[in-house]
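Course exercise 7: structure representation. Students receive a sequence record and must write out the corresponding structure in C-alpha coordinate form. The form below is the worked example handed out in class, using Aromatic amino acid aminotransferase (359 residues). Read each field label carefully; the graders check that inputs and outputs are placed in the correct fields and that the protein name is recorded exactly as given.

STUDENT ID: A-19
EXERCISE PROTEIN: Aromatic amino acid aminotransferase
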Amino acid sequence: MSETSPKLRAELEGIPTYKPGKPAAAGGPVAYKLSSNENPYPPLPGVMESVTAAASNFNRYPDMACAGLMNELSERFGVPLSHLATGTGSVGVAQQLIQATSGPGDEVIYAWRSFEAYPIITQISGARAVQVPLTPGDVHDLDAMADAITDRTRLIFVCNPNNPTGTVVRRAELERFLDRVPGDVLVVLDEAYREFIRDPEVPDGVELYRKRPNVCVLRTFSKAYGLAGLRVGFAIGHEPVAAALRKTAVPFGVSQLAQEAAIASLRAEDELMGRVGSLVCERKRVVDALRALGWTVPETQANFVWLRLGERTVAFAAACEEHGVVVRPFPGEGVRVTIGETEANDIFLKVAEGFRKEL
Ligand SMILES: Cc1ncc(COP(=O)(O)O)c(C=O)c1O
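STUDENT ANSWER:
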Protein backbone atom coordinates (compact mmCIF):
# COMPACT_ATOMS: atom_id res chain seq x y z
CA MET A 1 0.00 0.00 0.00
CA SER A 2 1.22 3.52 -0.77
CA GLU A 3 2.61 5.59 2.12
CA THR A 4 0.91 8.75 0.92
CA SER A 5 -2.66 9.69 1.55
CA PRO A 6 -4.94 12.07 -0.33
CA LYS A 7 -4.21 15.75 0.21
CA LEU A 8 -6.97 17.31 2.27
CA ARG A 9 -7.54 21.02 2.74
CA ALA A 10 -5.58 22.45 5.66
CA GLU A 11 -8.70 24.36 6.77
CA LEU A 12 -10.22 21.09 7.95
CA GLU A 13 -7.62 20.63 10.67
CA GLY A 14 -8.93 21.32 14.15
CA ILE A 15 -12.57 21.70 13.12
CA PRO A 16 -14.66 20.97 16.18
CA THR A 17 -16.96 18.02 15.59
CA TYR A 18 -20.68 18.72 15.84
CA LYS A 19 -21.93 17.09 19.03
CA PRO A 20 -25.47 15.86 18.56
CA GLY A 21 -27.66 15.79 21.65
CA LYS A 22 -27.21 12.42 23.32
CA PRO A 23 -30.08 10.00 22.76
CA ALA A 24 -32.10 8.80 25.74
CA ALA A 25 -30.71 5.51 27.11
CA ALA A 26 -32.67 2.48 26.01
CA GLY A 27 -33.93 -0.02 28.54
CA GLY A 28 -34.17 2.23 31.61
CA PRO A 29 -37.43 2.69 33.52
CA VAL A 30 -37.81 6.18 32.00
CA ALA A 31 -35.67 7.74 29.36
CA TYR A 32 -36.34 11.21 28.04
CA LYS A 33 -34.25 13.15 25.57
CA LEU A 34 -34.04 16.84 26.46
CA SER A 35 -30.76 17.37 24.64
CA SER A 36 -31.62 18.44 21.07
CA ASN A 37 -34.46 20.96 21.30
CA GLU A 38 -36.77 18.60 19.49
CA ASN A 39 -40.55 18.63 19.66
CA PRO A 40 -41.75 15.84 21.99
CA TYR A 41 -45.05 15.28 20.16
CA PRO A 42 -45.65 12.56 17.58
CA PRO A 43 -46.32 13.70 14.00
CA LEU A 44 -49.75 15.14 13.29
CA PRO A 45 -52.04 12.57 11.63
CA GLY A 46 -52.04 14.27 8.20
CA VAL A 47 -48.26 14.28 8.23
CA MET A 48 -47.97 10.52 8.67
CA GLU A 49 -50.38 9.94 5.81
CA SER A 50 -48.47 12.24 3.43
CA VAL A 51 -45.14 10.68 4.32
CA THR A 52 -46.50 7.15 3.97
CA ALA A 53 -47.89 7.96 0.53
CA ALA A 54 -44.57 9.51 -0.56
CA ALA A 55 -42.67 6.49 0.76
CA SER A 56 -44.06 4.23 -1.94
CA ASN A 57 -42.17 6.31 -4.52
CA PHE A 58 -38.72 6.56 -3.11
CA ASN A 59 -37.18 4.70 -6.01
CA ARG A 60 -37.63 8.11 -7.73
CA TYR A 61 -35.63 11.27 -7.11
CA PRO A 62 -37.52 13.99 -5.27
CA ASP A 63 -38.73 17.17 -6.96
CA MET A 64 -35.47 19.10 -7.03
CA ALA A 65 -37.23 22.46 -7.12
CA CYS A 66 -39.42 21.58 -4.10
CA ALA A 67 -42.20 23.27 -6.07
CA GLY A 68 -45.13 22.23 -3.89
CA LEU A 69 -43.43 23.32 -0.70
CA MET A 70 -42.11 26.53 -2.26
CA ASN A 71 -45.62 27.48 -3.39
CA GLU A 72 -46.98 26.81 0.07
CA LEU A 73 -44.23 28.89 1.70
CA SER A 74 -44.62 31.71 -0.81
CA GLU A 75 -48.29 32.00 0.06
CA ARG A 76 -47.83 31.51 3.78
CA PHE A 77 -45.20 34.28 4.10
CA GLY A 78 -46.35 36.55 1.29
CA VAL A 79 -42.99 36.44 -0.49
CA PRO A 80 -42.20 35.80 -4.16
CA LEU A 81 -40.92 32.36 -5.13
CA SER A 82 -37.69 33.98 -6.27
CA HIS A 83 -37.03 35.00 -2.64
CA LEU A 84 -37.20 31.45 -1.29
CA ALA A 85 -34.77 28.56 -1.08
CA THR A 86 -35.02 25.23 0.70
CA GLY A 87 -32.26 22.98 1.99
CA THR A 88 -31.35 19.98 4.09
CA GLY A 89 -32.34 21.54 7.39
CA SER A 90 -31.59 25.16 8.15
CA VAL A 91 -28.05 24.12 9.01
CA GLY A 92 -27.69 22.98 5.40
CA VAL A 93 -28.98 26.34 4.20
CA ALA A 94 -26.64 28.17 6.61
CA GLN A 95 -23.70 26.28 5.14
CA GLN A 96 -24.83 27.21 1.63
CA LEU A 97 -25.02 30.87 2.68
CA ILE A 98 -21.41 30.72 3.84
CA GLN A 99 -20.33 28.94 0.66
CA ALA A 100 -22.09 31.63 -1.35
CA THR A 101 -20.46 34.55 0.47
CA SER A 102 -17.25 33.62 2.21
CA GLY A 103 -13.89 32.04 1.47
CA PRO A 104 -10.26 32.27 2.61
CA GLY A 105 -9.44 35.79 3.75
CA ASP A 106 -13.06 36.65 4.51
CA GLU A 107 -14.64 37.01 7.92
CA VAL A 108 -17.84 35.65 9.41
CA ILE A 109 -19.13 37.25 12.61
CA TYR A 110 -21.36 35.58 15.15
CA ALA A 111 -22.05 35.77 18.87
CA TRP A 112 -20.46 33.24 21.18
CA ARG A 113 -21.69 31.08 22.67
CA SER A 114 -24.26 30.45 20.00
CA PHE A 115 -25.30 27.63 17.66
CA GLU A 116 -22.40 25.21 17.53
CA ALA A 117 -22.60 24.69 13.77
CA TYR A 118 -21.46 28.28 13.05
CA PRO A 119 -17.75 27.69 13.83
CA ILE A 120 -17.79 24.41 11.92
CA ILE A 121 -19.33 25.68 8.70
CA THR A 122 -17.23 28.84 8.83
CA GLN A 123 -13.98 26.93 9.21
CA ILE A 124 -14.87 24.53 6.40
CA SER A 125 -15.17 27.51 4.05
CA GLY A 126 -11.71 28.76 4.96
CA ALA A 127 -13.11 32.07 6.22
CA ARG A 128 -12.09 33.44 9.59
CA ALA A 129 -14.60 33.19 12.43
CA VAL A 130 -14.98 36.36 14.49
CA GLN A 131 -16.69 35.38 17.72
CA VAL A 132 -18.19 38.20 19.76
CA PRO A 133 -18.90 37.25 23.40
CA LEU A 134 -22.46 37.44 24.67
CA THR A 135 -23.14 40.13 27.28
CA PRO A 136 -22.95 39.06 30.95
CA GLY A 137 -26.74 38.55 30.69
CA ASP A 138 -26.14 35.99 27.88
CA VAL A 139 -27.60 38.22 25.14
CA HIS A 140 -26.08 39.11 21.74
CA ASP A 141 -23.86 42.17 22.12
CA LEU A 142 -24.98 43.84 18.89
CA ASP A 143 -22.91 46.99 19.42
CA ALA A 144 -19.75 44.89 19.77
CA MET A 145 -20.78 42.84 16.74
CA ALA A 146 -21.20 45.99 14.65
CA ASP A 147 -17.82 47.24 15.93
CA ALA A 148 -16.27 43.94 14.75
CA ILE A 149 -17.21 44.56 11.10
CA THR A 150 -14.24 45.13 8.78
CA ASP A 151 -13.97 45.36 5.03
CA ARG A 152 -13.39 41.60 5.05
CA THR A 153 -16.70 40.81 6.73
CA ARG A 154 -19.01 38.90 4.41
CA LEU A 155 -21.67 37.37 6.67
CA ILE A 156 -23.05 37.92 10.18
CA PHE A 157 -25.26 35.43 12.02
CA VAL A 158 -27.79 36.74 14.52
CA CYS A 159 -29.37 33.79 16.28
CA ASN A 160 -32.72 34.96 17.61
CA PRO A 161 -33.59 33.37 20.03
CA ASN A 162 -30.05 32.32 20.72
CA ASN A 163 -29.12 28.68 21.05
CA PRO A 164 -28.20 27.67 23.79
CA THR A 165 -29.22 30.59 26.02
CA GLY A 166 -32.76 31.19 24.70
CA THR A 167 -32.22 34.95 24.93
CA VAL A 168 -33.49 37.39 22.30
CA VAL A 169 -32.65 40.69 20.70
CA ARG A 170 -35.54 43.11 20.37
CA ARG A 171 -36.79 45.30 17.54
CA ALA A 172 -35.15 48.64 18.33
CA GLU A 173 -31.69 47.23 19.02
CA LEU A 174 -31.80 44.90 16.02
CA GLU A 175 -32.89 47.69 13.66
CA ARG A 176 -30.16 49.95 15.05
CA PHE A 177 -27.65 47.18 14.42
CA LEU A 178 -28.91 46.54 10.88
CA ASP A 179 -28.60 50.26 10.15
CA ARG A 180 -24.90 50.00 11.01
CA VAL A 181 -24.16 46.99 8.77
CA PRO A 182 -22.88 47.91 5.29
CA GLY A 183 -25.22 46.89 2.48
CA ASP A 184 -22.69 44.45 1.01
CA VAL A 185 -22.54 42.32 4.18
CA LEU A 186 -25.17 39.60 4.47
CA VAL A 187 -26.98 39.41 7.83
CA VAL A 188 -28.53 36.02 8.49
CA LEU A 189 -31.31 36.09 11.06
CA ASP A 190 -31.40 32.49 12.27
CA GLU A 191 -34.93 32.03 13.58
CA ALA A 192 -34.97 28.28 14.16
CA TYR A 193 -37.12 28.82 17.28
CA ARG A 194 -39.32 31.64 15.98
CA GLU A 195 -42.63 29.90 16.75
CA PHE A 196 -41.87 29.81 20.49
CA ILE A 197 -41.46 33.59 20.81
CA ARG A 198 -44.12 35.35 22.88
CA ASP A 199 -42.34 38.65 23.50
CA PRO A 200 -44.04 41.16 21.16
CA GLU A 201 -40.89 43.29 21.07
CA VAL A 202 -39.00 40.58 19.20
CA PRO A 203 -39.29 41.39 15.52
CA ASP A 204 -40.28 38.86 12.91
CA GLY A 205 -37.23 38.63 10.66
CA VAL A 206 -39.48 38.26 7.62
CA GLU A 207 -40.74 41.79 8.20
CA LEU A 208 -37.18 43.11 8.51
CA TYR A 209 -36.05 41.34 5.34
CA ARG A 210 -38.69 43.07 3.23
CA LYS A 211 -36.99 46.45 3.46
CA ARG A 212 -33.40 45.25 3.60
CA PRO A 213 -31.76 43.48 0.64
CA ASN A 214 -28.84 42.33 2.81
CA VAL A 215 -31.04 40.49 5.33
CA CYS A 216 -31.88 36.82 4.96
CA VAL A 217 -34.05 34.80 7.35
CA LEU A 218 -33.47 31.14 8.19
CA ARG A 219 -36.35 28.96 9.35
CA THR A 220 -36.70 25.24 9.95
CA PHE A 221 -39.27 22.48 10.15
CA SER A 222 -37.10 20.67 12.73
CA LYS A 223 -38.21 22.34 15.94
CA ALA A 224 -41.81 23.54 16.40
CA TYR A 225 -42.97 21.57 13.35
CA GLY A 226 -41.48 18.36 14.71
CA LEU A 227 -39.72 17.17 11.56
CA ALA A 228 -36.10 17.11 12.79
CA GLY A 229 -35.50 13.66 11.32
CA LEU A 230 -36.64 14.61 7.83
CA ARG A 231 -34.19 17.49 7.24
CA VAL A 232 -35.88 20.46 5.71
CA GLY A 233 -35.29 24.13 6.32
CA PHE A 234 -35.57 27.25 4.21
CA ALA A 235 -34.36 30.77 3.70
CA ILE A 236 -36.22 33.93 2.77
CA GLY A 237 -33.94 36.50 1.17
CA HIS A 238 -33.78 38.81 -1.80
CA GLU A 239 -33.30 37.48 -5.28
CA PRO A 240 -29.51 37.41 -5.58
CA VAL A 241 -29.20 35.63 -2.23
CA ALA A 242 -31.95 33.09 -2.94
CA ALA A 243 -30.45 32.47 -6.41
CA ALA A 244 -27.03 31.87 -4.83
CA LEU A 245 -28.66 29.33 -2.53
CA ARG A 246 -30.02 27.44 -5.50
CA LYS A 247 -26.51 27.37 -7.02
CA THR A 248 -24.94 25.98 -3.86
CA ALA A 249 -27.64 23.40 -3.09
CA VAL A 250 -26.87 19.70 -3.08
CA PRO A 251 -29.00 18.42 -5.97
CA PHE A 252 -32.07 16.54 -4.70
CA GLY A 253 -31.03 17.24 -1.09
CA VAL A 254 -34.54 17.57 0.31
CA SER A 255 -36.32 14.21 0.10
CA GLN A 256 -39.88 13.90 -1.16
CA LEU A 257 -40.84 12.61 2.28
CA ALA A 258 -39.52 15.81 3.83
CA GLN A 259 -41.27 17.99 1.25
CA GLU A 260 -44.63 16.26 1.75
CA ALA A 261 -44.31 16.29 5.53
CA ALA A 262 -43.49 20.00 5.52
CA ILE A 263 -46.52 20.77 3.34
CA ALA A 264 -48.81 18.68 5.56
CA SER A 265 -47.41 20.35 8.68
CA LEU A 266 -48.06 23.80 7.28
CA ARG A 267 -51.63 22.73 6.57
CA ALA A 268 -52.03 21.41 10.12
CA GLU A 269 -50.63 24.60 11.56
CA ASP A 270 -53.52 25.41 13.91
CA GLU A 271 -53.14 22.14 15.72
CA LEU A 272 -49.40 22.41 15.61
CA MET A 273 -49.45 25.88 17.14
CA GLY A 274 -51.70 24.53 19.90
CA ARG A 275 -48.92 22.11 20.77
CA VAL A 276 -46.38 24.92 20.65
CA GLY A 277 -48.66 26.87 23.02
CA SER A 278 -48.59 23.98 25.48
CA LEU A 279 -44.80 23.88 25.33
CA VAL A 280 -44.68 27.63 25.96
CA CYS A 281 -46.86 27.09 29.09
CA GLU A 282 -44.53 24.33 30.20
CA ARG A 283 -41.59 26.65 29.63
CA LYS A 284 -43.12 29.22 31.99
CA ARG A 285 -43.81 26.54 34.60
CA VAL A 286 -40.21 25.28 34.41
CA VAL A 287 -38.61 28.74 34.48
CA ASP A 288 -40.82 29.86 37.39
CA ALA A 289 -40.02 26.70 39.33
CA LEU A 290 -36.28 27.09 38.74
CA ARG A 291 -36.36 30.71 39.86
CA ALA A 292 -38.39 29.78 42.94
CA LEU A 293 -35.62 27.31 43.77
CA GLY A 294 -33.11 30.15 43.58
CA TRP A 295 -31.63 29.48 40.13
CA THR A 296 -30.70 32.37 37.86
CA VAL A 297 -32.33 31.60 34.53
CA PRO A 298 -31.99 33.93 31.55
CA GLU A 299 -35.29 34.96 29.99
CA THR A 300 -35.92 32.32 27.30
CA GLN A 301 -38.11 32.67 24.23
CA ALA A 302 -37.15 29.27 22.82
CA ASN A 303 -38.10 25.68 23.68
CA PHE A 304 -35.20 25.27 26.10
CA VAL A 305 -33.68 26.79 29.20
CA TRP A 306 -30.07 27.58 30.02
CA LEU A 307 -28.44 27.04 33.39
CA ARG A 308 -25.00 28.55 33.73
CA LEU A 309 -23.46 25.89 35.97
CA GLY A 310 -19.77 26.49 35.22
CA GLU A 311 -17.62 23.77 36.75
CA ARG A 312 -20.68 21.83 37.95
CA THR A 313 -22.07 21.41 34.44
CA VAL A 314 -20.92 17.86 33.82
CA ALA A 315 -21.98 16.68 37.29
CA PHE A 316 -25.42 18.19 36.79
CA ALA A 317 -25.84 16.49 33.41
CA ALA A 318 -24.75 13.18 34.93
CA ALA A 319 -27.29 13.57 37.75
CA CYS A 320 -30.05 14.24 35.21
CA GLU A 321 -29.07 11.14 33.29
CA GLU A 322 -29.12 9.02 36.44
CA HIS A 323 -32.70 10.11 36.95
CA GLY A 324 -33.76 9.36 33.37
CA VAL A 325 -33.41 12.61 31.42
CA VAL A 326 -30.61 13.45 29.02
CA VAL A 327 -29.70 17.15 28.83
CA ARG A 328 -27.06 18.97 26.81
CA PRO A 329 -23.93 19.93 28.76
CA PHE A 330 -21.41 22.50 27.51
CA PRO A 331 -18.58 21.59 29.89
CA GLY A 332 -17.33 24.47 32.00
CA GLU A 333 -20.22 26.67 30.88
CA GLY A 334 -23.71 25.36 31.44
CA VAL A 335 -26.48 22.99 30.45
CA ARG A 336 -29.20 23.50 27.90
CA VAL A 337 -32.39 21.67 28.72
CA THR A 338 -35.18 21.26 26.18
CA ILE A 339 -38.75 21.74 27.34
CA GLY A 340 -40.22 18.32 26.72
CA GLU A 341 -42.90 16.04 28.11
CA THR A 342 -44.30 17.18 31.47
CA GLU A 343 -42.89 14.08 33.21
CA ALA A 344 -39.44 14.77 31.75
CA ASN A 345 -39.56 18.41 32.85
CA ASP A 346 -40.56 17.28 36.33
CA ILE A 347 -37.57 14.98 36.57
CA PHE A 348 -35.28 17.80 35.48
CA LEU A 349 -36.80 20.09 38.12
CA LYS A 350 -36.30 17.47 40.82
CA VAL A 351 -32.62 17.19 39.94
CA ALA A 352 -32.33 20.99 39.88
CA GLU A 353 -33.91 21.11 43.33
CA GLY A 354 -31.51 18.51 44.72
CA PHE A 355 -28.52 20.33 43.24
CA ARG A 356 -29.65 23.60 44.73
CA LYS A 357 -29.73 22.10 48.21
CA GLU A 358 -26.12 20.99 47.85
CA LEU A 359 -24.87 24.51 47.16
C1 LIG B 1 -30.15 28.18 16.02
C2 LIG B 1 -30.26 26.99 15.18
N1 LIG B 1 -30.21 27.12 13.86
C3 LIG B 1 -30.32 26.07 13.06
C4 LIG B 1 -30.46 24.81 13.56
C5 LIG B 1 -30.50 23.68 12.60
O1 LIG B 1 -31.66 23.02 12.54
P1 LIG B 1 -32.01 22.12 11.27
O2 LIG B 1 -30.78 21.95 10.47
O3 LIG B 1 -32.50 20.86 11.85
O4 LIG B 1 -33.03 22.90 10.53
C6 LIG B 1 -30.51 24.60 14.93
C7 LIG B 1 -30.63 23.25 15.47
O5 LIG B 1 -30.29 22.94 16.57
C8 LIG B 1 -30.40 25.72 15.76
O6 LIG B 1 -30.41 25.60 17.09
